[in-house]
Amino acid sequence: MRPLLRGALLVGLLGLGACVQAPLATAPVTSPSGSSNHPRFAPPPGVDSQWNGQLGVYVVGGAPHLYYRERTYYRWNSGWSWASNPQGPWLPTDSSGVPPGLNRRYAQ
């Protein structure tokens, strides 16, 4: 009886081992030069934009000094403001409320 039990246990363990899948080998996410998207941050919905790696934000097309990252729009107009929609309402903020790349670009 023991050899039968041992055989059943071995078959069960081998069966479980077959269920374990090795992780898929995938290439790292890279964006071709000139790409308009970032691999981690989603672009703003419904507006033209392009990712700017130096600023760390999307630059929204057709609107001067309008930027987007992580569901937030940032606008420079002699000071910073932010909104969840490109039409506002805009709330004032200081440089600590914007991504660091934007803060460096408009440093006073």
Please describe the biggest sheet, giving its number of strands, its sense, and whether it closes into a barrel. Answer: 6 strands, antiparallel
Distance between the termini: 84 Å
Number of helices in the DSSP assignment: 2
Q: Which spans of ≥5 residues are poorly predicted at pLDDT below 50?
A: 18-34
Order of strands, widest sheet: 1-2-3-4-5-6
Give the overall shape: elongated
Mean pLDDT reading: 78
What is the helical fraction, as a range of percent? 10-25%
Question: Would you write up a description of this structure?
Answer:
By secondary structure, the chain is α+β, with helices and mostly antiparallel strands. The longest helix is centred in the N-terminal third of the chain and has 18 residues, at 2-19. It is built from 2 helices and 6 strands. The protein has a domain at 49-105. Strands 1-2-3-4-5-6 form a 6-stranded antiparallel β-sheet, with no helix packed on it. It has helices spanning 2-19, 100-105, and strands at 49-52, 57-60, 66-69, 72-76, 80-83, 91-93.
Can you give keywords for this protein?
108 residues; alpha+beta; 6-stranded antiparallel sheet; 2 helices; elongated
What's the arrangement of secondary structure elements?
Layout: H1 2-19, E1 49-52, E2 57-60, E3 66-69, E4 72-76, E5 80-83, E6 91-93, H2 100-105
Antiparallel strand pairs: 1-2, 2-3, 3-4, 4-5, 5-6
